[in-house]
Amino acid sequence: MVDRVVGTVVLLLTLGYAWEASRMQVGFLSDPLGPRPFPYLIAALLGLSAFWLLFRPDPNPTWPPRSAWRSFALVLLSLVAYAYLVVPLGFILTTTLEMALLSYLFGARFWPGLGGALAFTLVVYFLFTEGLGVSLPVGRVFG
Q1: Domain locations in the chain?
Q2: What is the spatial distance between Cα 13 and Cα 32, in angstroms, rounded to a whole number?
């Protein structure tokens, strides 16, 4: 029953997300493919996941232990904070801090997690800026 309830909620969120994606306005000078297909791709994958939960639920679902809920709440709060801080602090600093926190919450030691987070952030930054030509926020704090 739990999987079906979650599947229904995810399906409703997917429909709302797809409806909002259909209202997205794209500038005249964007490339031929443009940014429009990406929200639809995410909506399709979410919809498939929702249907999987609805029609193939786990016969014996188990909830995580109470000790894990604090970590879940920290992950959710950190992602919300990331969304608000990425423009003022910049992509590199904010993403490094977020990835370091997530790696620590998933059991990594602090310094290796921080090093991996910095390496991941730099690779993603250069892939987006140099490879795809997407500008990412440098941060108002750093000019």
Answers
A1: 1-62, 67-143
A2: 28
